[in-house]
Specification:
heterodimer; A: alpha+beta; Immunoglobulin-like; 5-stranded antiparallel sheet; 18% strand; elongated; B: mainly alpha; Cytochrome Bc1 Complex, Chain D, domain 2; two-stranded antiparallel sheet; 6 strands; 45% helix
Chain lengths: 507, 301
Amino acid sequence: MVQVINTVDSSEVDKHDVAAVNKAENRPMYASRVKIHPKAGAGTFRRLKWILVFVLLGIYYISPWLRWDRPGNAPDQAILIDLANRRFYFFFIEIWPQEFYYIAGLLIMAGVGLFLVTSLVGRAWCGYACPQTVWTDLYIWVESKVEGDRNARIRLDAAPWSVSKISKRVIKMAIWLVIAIATGGFWVFYFADAPTLLHQLVTGQAAPVAYFTIAILTATTFTFAGFMREQVCTYMCPWPRIQGAMLDEESLIVTYNAWRGEPRHAGRKKAEAQGLKVGDCVDCNACVAVCPMGIDIRDGNQLECINCALCIDACDTVMDKIGRPKGLINYTTSSLYNANVAGKNEHWNASHLLRPRTAIYFTVWAAVGIAMLVTLINRSQLDVNVVPDRNPLFVQLSDGAIRNGYTVKILNQKQELRTFRLLIDGLKGATMEMVGEEGAPREVVEIAVEPDKLKAVKIYVSTADHDVLKHGKSEFTFRVEELNVTGEPETAMEQTVFHAPDNDEED
Amino acid sequence: MATKIERDEISGTDTTGHEWDGIKELNTPLPKWWLYTFYACVIWALGYTVFYPAWPMISGATPGVLGYSSRAELVKTVDVAKAAQKENLDKIAAASVEDILKDEKLLAFARAGGAAAFKVNCVQCHGAGAAGSVGYPNLNDDDWLWGGQPEQIHTTLKNGIRYVQNADTRVMDMPVFGPDPANGNAAVLKPEEIASVANFVMTLSGGEADAAKAAAGKELYATNCASCHGDTGLGNKDMGAPNLTDKIWLYGGKIENVEAQISKPRVGVMPAWSARLDEATIKQLAVYVHALGGGEAPVAQ
């Protein structure tokens, strides 16, 4: 309902008949949820949010279709999580499960990055980048195109069921469903070759797990973005609860500058004429009408506020209209707010960004990033693991020598067949035998490993050297050297132990 | 206890009507989502008892219309696994152990299958790591009583050792050189003669021995032992006579162990596995044991 208050002052703005349904005093413990009908907004932040919606959804929908030519049998999808073969492909990087620390590093960076962003600009993640916000934005946009803006939607909700109402609801939900299916549908493309999977999905030949995943994500998208909306943020998500610890008095948060706005008057000129003290707030409720969380920002910073800044857009439009400076609601810090309340005229500048807290977050974030980059650049695509036999620890041979058994695993992380030479460093008189290969014991064993594969070989190491045998335990190293390469050959080493009978315990 | 249902003003909910020392309890309704989930579970459970085995009867439970049983499922799973192994098992049953060793894929399959069979049938005597113990040969080493070539191991597994139920079993008993109860405690060698032979045997592998006794034992060895263990003590795998020149001693390598073994020899028995295991399993075991590290290369006959 729009009510024009031109009886008081013709130059004044429209007053919105709206209640902040999630305002603390409007929300008793036992009441059911009251549906929020956010009014479509326009302005700087709304534009920024649309851009982000396009960019983020674009990344989500386009990424799996990017191709990246890889040699051999390796998949040609740029970003692929190949669960069946336990590989993660990201453009030129191929990660094996034992290199999961790269993923852990990314998660740490994401976590610390979230701390950093929150301490700088509050809940920017919630307001702009969170999938819940992005998809809800999209759903509300669809809703407003089909059913009309806030007032039309309120009227439609109240109206009795009719053909027109049913058709509007059906159209809206059909579009929602298409978006939801597309959301779930594109998720699975990250886990298999996208064009092949699309063909399988359409012809009904894809794996049941693909359909199941799509069904779950479709259902969650549809209900979360269509019906649950702000409840997900307020009741289900833990992040809003953590934000209290992340924010400080220098964090930029969406703030109603009460020192400038109060006392609020719906009819400013009349109040001025009466000689009353008049703030800039004309109590038009535009900020409440656009709020997707159903709160009144003028009540101060609240748990529900996702810092989407739509109220800033709404209020700036009104301030323009009544000829007052913008920024009655703006991004500001709690310390600046308090300074202004105390009568000092202080403004935000970039120096507020740098403080010990943000410096520490940034340092940690950058250190993890640099460490990962360095290890990624220097990482070897050859690895060797050695598992010594524990039962028996050693075997007495007839000629008096002692033999130990080892399972040697060689990891060829390149997409090409490579031949390696296995040698022993630091064990006197040691000779090797490889199970499955005939021939006399020797000092070097050659092993070919197929592209992108791990090969486990059983190696028996024997020595009759007196110096070795008089110690119960001797450390030595298996060295793996690459053969037949044009470039720089890779080498990997693994230290292990040779066991002999403990002579001190004998006799 | 009085029952007086009141309406609570704050929540708008009725009380249960009970009061304990002034404390009243709200009769808060169950959350709808919970209640409907609960009803759905009840319906599901009723359906379950119809389709699956559920109600206990006097001799068993109702089978359920689907006829499901976990035992039948296990049989099915085992059948699937057996069918998957069949191709390789058939090949193994048909091939010789030597041919299996030459085929990389069959070798890997046989080693894995042999390892599993070993854990069930062999570890009781030879140990989990096949390292044996006193009286039970270590299968990892390169010393073999009856031969370490693939076919020799296979024969030993098939027919057993001193396993009288099997006609082809490997048999050879070392004579008792000390007092023999079966022969009226008559002794082939006197105790000091046994000590001399034992000392001589110790010298064959470079062990510590009394030189004088050893010299005396040399002649006795030639007369009594060389026929089986050989003139130089290298033993004879065709008759299971151990090599006395190596560092491996089945019943201990100290002088008193050797004396005891001459005086009253102990011998081991191994069952013939052809009566219990199929041919493919025995061959897999032979491959596994051969690949434990001491297997001898096959010699062309």
